[in-house]
């Protein structure tokens, strides 16, 4: 990651200030599609908020933001007191702290965004929409596209500890003439999803290439409504921490498993359940180096 020129530094700082201004506005940044909001408080107890920092020398913006979901009326209760309730309206959001790490080099069309999530909560969608609006330029037909990427190390660790759990096929099934006269005429057919799970006395089927290849050929010939299932399917594999899938015609290395922070040495605060954000930052810096090195290597191979 090379250092920028004085002009680059000025431009990146302007980008950073615009970023802070957007997140610190009078209203929270609202992604209506996901019904989630993002924001930061410019001032906390009279002191400027420094939860987000800019590293101009490495083109990185990182820190914590507030984010959460709205749209459902909820009740707030103390787990030790079942008698009292406090109502939270659908226009209010319960906010959590999320860490992000954005690498946005000015001399490249490619950047990297890392966002920390919780087991059941994430702000990936609204954050990506925010970044997309900042970097897209419709007047010049320049749009931002996101592609998920996970370092090879994480993919290898996941596959080595996983088992094959399911093949999933999808088909469109028509309606016979005899049935058509008896149902709503607007129904043209049905989309059917078929899940096929391998059974093993040991309960374990390793997702080895030979297993998947052989099974895909056998299952692809099976028929549903006199129609072969075919070659389009998703293969699901799972370990003790999560599940991932890939298209049956792709290599297993194409899976995108979750990077679990506990596996990267990040500690959680036992009372708040919030991770140590300094440790998360170190993990992000390490993962970014892995990603950039792998992308550079793959680009070199593509040029050969």
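Q: What amino acid sequence fits the structure above?
A:
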């Amino acid at each position: 990651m090379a250092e920028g020129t004085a002009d680059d530094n000025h431009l990146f700082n302007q980008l950073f200030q615009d970023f802070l201004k957007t997140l610190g506005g009078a209203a929270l940044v609202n992604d209506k599609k996901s019904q989630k909001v993002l924001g930061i408080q410019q001032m906390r107890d009279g002191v400027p908020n420094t939860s987000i920092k800019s590293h101009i020398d490495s083109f990185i913006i990182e820190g914590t933001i507030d984010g959460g979901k709205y749209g459902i009326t909820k009740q707030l209760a103390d787990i030790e007191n079942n008698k009292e309730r406090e109502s939270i309206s659908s226009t209010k959001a319960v906010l959590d702290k999320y860490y992000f790490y954005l690498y946005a080099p000015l001399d490249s069309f490619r950047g990297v965004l890392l966002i920390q999530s919780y087991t059941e909560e994430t702000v990936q969608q609204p954050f990506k929409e925010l970044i997309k609006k900042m970097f897209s330029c419709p007047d010049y037909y320049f749009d931002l596209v996101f592609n998920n990427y996970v370092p090879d190390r994480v993919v290898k660790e996941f596959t080595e500890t996983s088992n094959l759990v399911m093949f999933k096929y999808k088909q469109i099934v028509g309606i016979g003439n005899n049935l058509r006269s008896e149902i709503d005429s607007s129904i043209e057919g049905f989309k059917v999803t078929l899940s096929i799970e391998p059974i093993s006395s040991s309960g374990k089927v390793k997702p080895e290439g030979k297993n998947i290849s052989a099974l895909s050929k056998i299952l692809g010939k099976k028929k549903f409504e006199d129609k072969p299932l075919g070659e389009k399917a998703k293969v699901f594999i799972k370990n003790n921490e999560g599940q991932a899938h890939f298209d049956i015609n792709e290599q297993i290395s194409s899976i995108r498993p979750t990077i679990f922070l506990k596996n990267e040495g990040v500690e959680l605060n036992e009372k708040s359940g919030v991770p140590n954000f300094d440790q998360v930052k170190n993990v992000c810096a390490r993962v970014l180096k892995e990603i950039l090195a792998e992308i550079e290597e793959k680009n070199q191979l593509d040029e050969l």
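Q: And what stands out in the fold?
A: The chain has two domains: 6-149+261-303, 154-254.
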